[in-house]
Amino acid sequence: MLRQIYTLRVAIINKLKITRFQKDVLIAASRIPNGKTKTYKEIAKEIGRPGAWRAVGSALHKNPLPIIIPCHRVVASDGLGGYSLGLQLKKLLLALKL
Hints:
- There is one protein chain.
- This protein is mostly helical.
- It has helices at residues 2-15, 20-30, 40-46, 53-61, 87-95; strands at 38-39, 74-75.
- The protein has a two-stranded parallel ribbon.
- Helix 1 (2-15) runs antiparallel to helix 2 (20-30) and helix 3 (40-46) packs across helix 4 (53-61).
- The longest helix has 14 residues, at 2-15.
- It starts with a helix and ends with a helix.
- The mean pLDDT is 95.
């Protein structure tokens, strides 16, 4: 079931009219399991752009489907970071392990 959800997310991401970098970031965020987090730096390294952690944050902020593509699972090295739908919701989603 989880594999099917991931496959559906990737299919949706590939249909979006966004840059290749943004797609790579969103696909990487989609791989993060429920209840887990990764940092912006970890995502940057994962997509082969280790110095682009700020650009990762920018790409996640532009995520057009923030509940479907779970960008709330990406956090700053020293805290929560940001979330386009607000930090209150990010905290709630993380607490619910969604």
